[in-house]
Amino acid sequence: MARNQYFNYYGATNEQSLIDDLVVESIRQYAHDMIYLPRTGNNKDETLNEYEYNTFSDGLDCEFYLKSASSFEGQGMLLEKFGLQIKNQMILTMAIRSFTEFIKPTTAKERVQEGDLIYIPMLKALYEITYVDTSMPFYQMGKLQAWDITLELYESSNDVFSTGNAEIDDVYNAMDNIANDPFDQGDDFEAEANTVLDFSEVNPFSDGF
After folding, report:
1. What is the rounded CA–CA span in Å between residue 169 and residue 160?
2. DSSP readout, 67-103?
3. Residue 153: in which H helix or E strand, if any?
4. pTM of the full predicted structure?
5. CA distance 36 to 62
6. Distance between CA atoms of 111 and 130, rounded to whole angstroms?
7. How many Å apart are CA 136 and CA 184, to the nearest integer?
8. How far apart are the first and last CA of the chain?
9. In sequence order, what are the residues at sequence separation of 6 or more whose Cβ sits closer than 8 angstroms to the Cβ of residue 149?
10. pLDDT per residue over 28-82, tens digit each?
11. Which residue in 92, 57, 93, 94 sits closest to 168, CA to CA?
């Protein structure tokens, strides 16, 4: 064979551990402390393959390196038919060792999952994980050391928050309550409508019925 049999870079566990140490150290040196919220789906619709609502019961502290540091990415702010939509994106880098140490024992997940949330205290906002690149950089010395995580600004969607962190629970549960009942003052709207149009009048287009 052409490969030199005396060098095996992909099975050298000492070198792999060294790179692991360097990646974790470099991320922690420049990282931001954030809170990882694993998602639990409830009342799954087997036809549509989606959950009625999600529950976020844990807020796990971990460090992330802000990779897209110059500005937000994505489509920015768009004026759509339902109003102004904010499509800001960012990319974070997370060491696999940190995930194994701080998050896996609680969630029993093998990796960061799309649909989970990350709260960024610096921005006081929740971001949803939309994509996880699990192979970048690609197998240095035969092992993966980190993941690149793409986030989008979280949109309130009937979810329940009970993480124990009031900064998250109070704000986002209140937002969901508003979103769940947009016509909370329905009686007031109906009373106002009755002053504009008397629905007891005969409809001129009903032939007298």
Report:
1. 8
2. SS-SS-EEEEEEEETTEEEEEEEEEEEEEHHHHHHHT
3. strand 146-153
4. 0.69
5. 7
6. 14
7. 48
8. 94
9. 64, 91, 92, 93, 94, 112, 118, 129, 131, 132, 133
10. 888 889 999 998 888 877 777 777 888 888 899 999 988 875 555 555 555 555 5
11. 57
